[in-house]
Amino acid sequence: SLTAKSSLSNEDIMRYSRQLLLPEFGVKGQINLSKTSVLVVGCGGLGCPLAQYLAAAGVGRLGLIDYDEVELNNLHRQVLHREENQGQAKALSAASAIKSLNSTVQCCPYQLQLSPENALDLIQQYDIVADCSDNVPTRYLVNDACVLSGKPLVSASALRMEGQLTIYNYKGGPCYRCLYPAPPPPDTVTNCSDGGVLGVVPGIMGCLQALEVFKIASGQGSSLHQQLMMFDAQDARFRSIKLRPRQSDCAVCGQNPSVTKLVDYESFCGSAATDKCRKLNL
Amino acid sequence: SLTAKSSLSNEDIMRYSRQLLLPEFGVKGQINLSKTSVLVVGCGGLGCPLAQYLAAAGVGRLGLIDYDEVELNNLHRQVLHREENQGQAKALSAASAIKSLNSTVQCCPYQLQLSPENALDLIQQYDIVADCSDNVPTRYLVNDACVLSGKPLVSASALRMEGQLTIYNYKGGPCYRCLYPAPPPPDTVTNCSDGGVLGVVPGIMGCLQALEVFKIASGQGSSLHQQLMMFDAQDARFRSIKLRPRQSDCAVCGQNPSVTKLVDYESFCGSAATDKCRKLNL
Amino acid sequence: MAAPLSLHLEFGGGAELLFNSEKKHQVSLPGQAGPWDIRQLLVWIQQNLLKERPELFIQGDTVRPGILVLINDADWELMGQLDYQLQDGDTVVFISTLHGG
Amino acid sequence: MAAPLSLHLEFGGGAELLFNSEKKHQVSLPGQAGPWDIRQLLVWIQQNLLKERPELFIQGDTVRPGILVLINDADWELMGQLDYQLQDGDTVVFISTLHGG
Ligand SMILES: [Zn+2]
Ligand SMILES: [Zn+2]
């Protein structure tokens, strides 16, 4: 965990002066932020802007998970990576961009696939988890691991010209399984690699996701508790939906959970934990 | 103006494949975008994410205006600049980051203050103008220059934990002067350097601004015509307001305009065209 | 016999692709002896709006997993789910969950 | 004599700083002989809500330049401006223009 910081250095005061001026944030919020660690699952279209703004604002420690490598077709939306990073691990490419923006942030790149074997170990080392992944099995895995570790999960997604943002496992609100007890039939799942995505849509959603992480980390608390924010880029319209509370019959966060350790999410969902080829031959 | 492009290279097809898949965009939208030039006024908290996503998506030409140099207190929100760029011209620092993201975009940095002397010459070379500036005189100057040159103006602003976005001089909608015929008393103007700003708020607004530029450039048209989008980060709430149409008695876009060439905007506003020291001693 | 019911239906997150890519549908349900509930609305949608591959929208008597139903901007779970009795002028939204990033 | 009028007032973009930093105010205007219009509302706000430096909010009989007035999510210019006659339950928003970037 992070060294407890009780005051700001002169350089911190200079660097963060524009946000120290905010009454909602101030010195206390900055110190809280500098003590907070955030795990970013996925360094793609959502993870890039999220990591960029959290690092710029002075989050204490940032874990960056991605098993994948930078490809040319990522660059229209994954704005931390550069042309020269093609073929490199996304986690390392993102970490290097983050360091050049704010060298005072502890940055931990993990070039690996989040899995039932490593997820709890990793998530236990962080205060807040941001789900920036791109496939269904990973979303269930991250959810269950957050519930089992008691961590708030700020979850965004984007496809075509739409985006969604919710906070799970936070202040009596639902977890992902409370909303979606059964996984969608694999036939109905469209990923960015087959449905496409307008690059700035994950940009917008990743920034909004960073804002909620920021509000939790600084102590203000998220205003999206038990809410779903939906964005339609075609008509530039946002809509906020009141969600169900935590469900007492939920398989993982309910009163008699049947899921008490991580399971095999690829089998559960019938699809692979990647957005590249969506069906798993079982 | 840009060389007329009628097809996409193989590399373009690879790079932009995820947005070529979108029915609203497709090959035609990509070609339209590659023929469009956008002038970004200000490479700060709004200009950085805007330029980043427009360049990533493959806009044809990007003009980047900023007279200022990178300072440590910019880095919490001006995410194209790096620690090592401190002291460098923002326009050059931004251009270098843009080039490493997408070298196929023509990028024209201008290290200068937009002024009544140079504004028309510059704006006439571009199809769309994005106002990412940080002070009142520049906002009137950009507006008048866009009206006199017949260019659509996508205008965003951010302060503390709030943001605003509008499109001026577009399809019968109002210009900035239609809404604000008289400048605000200098005493009532708060800038980011005295009021502060949460970095991700201009991030969100700059991304939304880029989306509207993108929709105009690709041929879909903006959905914010005659509308004002307001964002409150504290409660993560957006609100869209129906605005007045173009006003027939407007001083610059009305039927008998009194402003037929650019004037002295610092005198008109009683303040300097910078966000650093807000009052002008007249 | 109740009067016909005017509803505003919306589909999003990809669910609109099953409805001619049209996101917004203003519909009128015929008058019937009792009130309309969501269970009956799903049958009506399947018979009147759904052009192809109904199994991608409906499974059994409810929506397929991964579609969230919203009644007047609230999760249908808060409103009685399939048993919610529709009122004239209600907005019902069917949103497919997005997973991309 | 008309009944008292219940209004939802909001201040934003910095205008709330003149009102104890409170963005939302639920207020009740007393009953009077004729209807209330925005011109009268501004006088009422100045006398009842505005704590300090009224010149930063009001100039003459209208709001100072740089404040936009919104009536039920529409620009007041579309609604008759100072002459708009308030209805019970209306939302009136006063937004200071932002210039930062
Ligand atoms: Zn649950
Ligand atoms: Zn005008």
UniProtKB/TrEMBL annotation, chains C, D:
The family this protein is said to belong to: Belongs to the URM1 family.
Function: Acts as a sulfur carrier required for 2-thiolation of mcm(5)S(2)U at tRNA wobble positions of cytosolic tRNA(Lys), tRNA(Glu) and tRNA(Gln). Serves as sulfur donor in tRNA 2-thiolation reaction by being thiocarboxylated (-COSH) at its C-terminus by MOCS3. The sulfur is then transferred to tRNA to form 2-thiolation of mcm(5)S(2)U. Also acts as a ubiquitin-like protein (UBL) that is covalently conjugated via an isopeptide bond to lysine residues of target proteins.
HAMAP family the record matches: Urm1
Protein name: Ubiquitin-related modifier 1
1-thioglycine carried by residues: G101
Presence of the UniProt keyword Cytoplasm in the record: yes
Gene behind the chain: URM1
Covalent cross-link (Glycyl lysine isopeptide (Gly-Lys) (interchain with K-? in acceptor proteins)), residues: G101
Classification via InterPro entries: Beta-grasp_dom_sf (IPR012675), Mopterin_synth/thiamin_S_b (IPR016155), Urm1 (IPR015221)
Keywords associated with the record: Cytoplasm, Isopeptide bond, tRNA processing, Ubl conjugation pathway
